Amino acid sequence: MAATAALVSAGLVLAGCGGSSDNNSKASGKSPGEGKAECSQLTQFGDLTGKKVHVYTTIVSPEDQAQKDSYKLFTTCTGATVEYEGSKEMEAQILVRAQSGNLPDIAYLPQPGLLNTLVTQTQTVKEAPKSVSDNVDKWFGADWKKYGSIDGKFYAAPLGANVKSFVWYSPKMFKDNGWTVPQTWDEMLALSDKIAAKGIKPWCAGFESGEATGWPGTDWIEDTLLRTAGADVYDKWITNDVKFNDPQIAEAFDKVGAILKNPKYVNGGIGDVKSIATTAFQQGGLPILQGKCAMHRQASFYAANWPKGTKVAEDGDVFAFYLPPIDPSKGKPVEGGGEFVAAFNDKPVTVAFQTYLSSDVWANEKAKSTPGGGWVSANKGLDPNNLVSPIDKLSAQILADPNAVFRFDASDLMPAEVGANSFWKQMVAWITGQDTKTTLDNIQNSWPKS
């Protein structure tokens, strides 16, 4: 990777975490953004022309283009450019690179648990500067700032957000067959039986994602646990106060297994149950377009994976409905996720880019750069009119619903040894035939002892 090699050859020395300051965050010269309202937060950093900031992320093609496009204003305002490195192996490799000192300037961390590991075990993450902290206080809720904080110190601002409680489907396929969107879990299972009786596999899925293979399975479990056991148990599960091998967790696995391990239900257009483990998550829902499966549970960001020209809308080629609750009287459980911006130095260009990403300005630039949909933010400065995709607007509605019981992706909040390791791997073992008890015992045994 050229950007990485350049950083290494330059002999980049990374500071350890500690008190945040802006002492190194000023550059000389007049900012290229002077006099431009949209650059007002960035002119304080002076002229950064010729400087580069290297960002490392899990966001790869095709979603990466919208990210890159959203940085154009940053270049206009500062003169700096962004070196983008996307990798499906980022979650595992960032820890390796932290140990070797071969770190980027900034990384987008998709798990607060991974942030915790980097802060506590490698001491490489810098506390967020005041400009970033002030932006987060202004534009995000307190819970979001808490997700980016460790032991009372704030490190990482939220970036994008997503709603994971979605089931993708073909509106035309449903209409042609007289199927209606289910409002409860039991209705969803009854619909699955009806679809299977027509000789169509009702579900398709894919767990493969490079070194992160298995994470789509953890999302299934988490979303289901919110519906079977509720938010209180979910919260205690994240902290290991409720163990993985607790009967309440086993119940959620059984609910998911009744769908994903049912050969009558899966894996439409792809293969048998075991094929779920080797099907790339980006490919998992595509058989819907050929009428080979009817439903695919996946997050809002999956919108970016439909082929070019696919109309994502309520009257389009594909759309999504909210994964229904088991008991509607207990509220509307919503699982979500997002990324957090961690910095490994406080160079002026790094702090300037952090500041930009934490602002309402970037949130709106990103929305306008994502015409195909699949992106939303919890940034309160985001203008909903800039969310051109119906699925993003639906996500925003779900997040704003007063009946919504929102919880962040549980595996993203667990220690990385579990949430970004054993939980993923054991989901693969489980979907390929391992029994639930062994799976849960194995994950529980991996929980850090201290």
UniProtKB/TrEMBL annotation:
Signal peptide: none annotated. Keywords: Transport. It comes from the Bacteria. SUPFAM superfamilies: Periplasmic binding protein-like II. Pfam families: SBP_bac_8 (PF13416). Belongs to the bacterial solute-binding protein 1 family. This is ABC transporter substrate-binding protein. It comes from Nocardioides panacihumi.
